[in-house]
Amino acid sequence: MTYLQALIIAIIEGLTEFLPVSSTGHMILADSLMKIQNRDFAKTFEIVIQLGAIIAVLALYIKRFFVGINIYLKLAIAFLPTGVIGLLAYKTIKQYLFNPYTVSISLIVGGILLIVLDKWSDRKSSAYKNVEEISYLGSFKIGFIQCFSMIPGVSRAAATILGGVYAGFDRKQAAEFSFLLAIPTMFAASGYDLLKEKDNIHSSDLQLLLFGGLIAFVVAIFAVKAFIAFLNKYGFKHFGYYRIVLGILFLVYALGTGMVLTD
C-alpha cells in the first residue's frame, strides 16, 4: 500500500465512519478500484485506522463521560452483544464477507431500510430528555441490532441509529448514541485486529497506520459536525438513495469485470 492509497482510504474512513453509508464498505470498494495488492494488510489498515475516528468522537463528546457512571453502564450493555458475537465470528467475517459483492448487496438493502426509517422517524419525538436516560433494555436492543453491522456494507452507524430510533430516541439522539457506542465497539475491533496481526505488521506498516489514523481523525472531526447538521435538516432518506445508487453501480461493475468473491 502506498501513502497515496493510504491517504485516500483514510479520508474515506474519516468521512464515512459515522455516516449511515458503511465506511468498511466504501474502503473495500476503494481497495478494489485501486487494485491494492496486499489485501491482508489492507484489511488490517481499514480496521485499525478507525482508532483515529474514535478519538475524534471522544474529543467532541468528552463531556458526556463526566456526567456520571450511568452512561458507561448503558454503553457496556449495548456493546455486549457485538463483543460476544464479534469474538466468535471475527475470522469467518473477515475471510468470507470482505468482498465487493457482499458490500454492494448490503448497501442496497441498507439504503431501502434508511428510506423506510426516514418516513418512520419523521416528526418522531423522543421518549427521553437525553441519551443517558435510555433504559438498559433499550441499550441492549441497540447493541443487538449493531451486530448486523459486522456484515461489510451494512454500516455500524446505520444499524445503531436504526436501533436507537426503535428504542425511543429521536434522530439526533440516535445519532449521538451511535457516536458514543462507536468508542468501545471500534476500540475493541481495532485492538483485537492489532493483537491478531501483530506478527505480520512491520515498522513501515506502523508508519502507514499512524499516518492513516491521523488523517481519519482530522476528517472525522468535520464529518461528525456536518452529519448532525445535515440530519436535522434533511433526515436519512438521501443517505438511503446514495447507498442504493452506489450499491447498484458497483455490483454492475464487479459483475462486469469479474471481480473475485474472496482474496
Overview of the molecule:
The longest helix is centred in the last third of the chain and has 32 residues, at about 205-235. This protein has helices spanning about 5-15, 25-35, 40-50, 50-60, 70-95, 100-120, 135-145, 155-165, 170-195, 205-235, 235-255. It contains eleven helices and no strands. With about 260 residues, it is mainly alpha-helical. The protein is globular, with a radius of gyration of 17 Å. The chain has one domain (about 5-255).
Strand content: under 5%
Helical stretch count?
A: 11
Distance between the termini: 16 Å
User: Main β-sheet: number of strands, strand sense, barrel status?
Assistant: none
Unreliable residue stretches: none
